[in-house]
Specification:
This protein has 236 residues and is α/β, with parallel strands linked by helices. It has 2 domains: 103 residues, no CATH class; 118 residues, no CATH class. Helices cover 36% and strands 35% of the residues. The protein is built from 5 helices and 12 strands. The strands form 2 sheets. Strands 1, 2, 4, 6, 8, 9 and 11 form a 7-stranded mixed beta sheet that branches. A hairpin with a 2-residue loop joins strand 1 and strand 2. Helix 1 runs antiparallel to helix 2 and helix 3 packs antiparallel against helix 4. The protein is elongated.
Length: 236
């Protein structure tokens, strides 16, 4: 978890530095124009708005979007509309959208049914030769043995060590499907397997300890997405 906290505080530090720079630019009136005012507050509200969208906080997302509109209503041709009117519209729209779209009710339902991992926990499930690993704010090690054709790796803010030393590929190919956000992943893969990287990487890196190319005829495909994550492949 050390690397996750390091990423968190690094991101937080960058946000504060950018916020300080924008407040200074705003105070010195370096930029002019209807969109050049309240840069610091706009950036802060925008960060919170993105956070709310990420965590599907419908009402809060609409509320902070309305704050941004209030700051720049002149540039949007809404100078004659009062802030109370914008806030009232935002509250009504937020309540309405929350009633129409309520992902957190579905989230709670999945938690009760055991289909969604709780925070600071990891769930592993196997359906025949398909293995699914969900991890949330967790530090975990998993050893895969036996046959598999696909591994679904779903991690958020987690450190995961996945050992495939004893795994068997009875088919020419297999797939590891990634849906990983702000995670540190260590995969231990036999040298005999070839790796076909088809990952979408967003602010993420892949490092190899050992050869990138396999020595055998079996191929494992990496598909899905890595966001703000680090994947390390160690050959065994």
């Amino acid at each position: 978890m050390h690397s996750l906290f390091k990423k968190f505080f690094t991101t937080l530090g960058i946000i504060f530095v950018v916020l300080a720079i924008l407040i200074l630019v705003d105070a010195l009136h370096v930029l002019t124009g209807p969109w050049a005012n309240h840069l610091g507050l706009t950036f802060l509200f925008l960060v919170i708005f993105i956070f709310c969208l990420r965590w599907r906080l419908t009402f809060s997302s609409v509320l902070f979007l309305s704050f941004i509109i209030m700051l720049h209503k002149a540039g949007m041709g809404m100078a004659h509309v009062s802030n109370w009117t914008i806030l009232g519209i935002a509250i009504l729209a937020g309540i309405g959208l929350s009633l129409l779209y309520h992902p957190h009710l579905n989230y709670v339902k999945r938690l009760i049914q055991g289909d969604e991992p709780t925070p600071f926990a990891t769930i592993e499930d196997q359906n025949e030769d398909v293995i699914t690993i969900h991890s949330r704010f967790s530090d975990t090690t998993r050893n895969i043995s036996g046959e598999f054709t696909r591994i679904d790796l779903d991690t958020h803010y987690s450190d995961v060590d996945l050992h495939l030393d004893d795994a068997l590929l009875t088919t020419p190919t297999a797939t590891i499907q990634f849906d990983c956000k702000s995670s540190s992943l260590n995969l231990y893969i036999p040298l005999e397997w070839n790796i076909e990287d088809q990952l979408q990487k967003i602010g993420s890196t892949i490092d190899y300890n050992g050869s990138e190319n396999g020595t055998g005829s079996k191929t494992i495909y990496f598909t899905g997405r890595l966001a703000a994550s680090n994947l390390t492949i160690t050959r065994v």
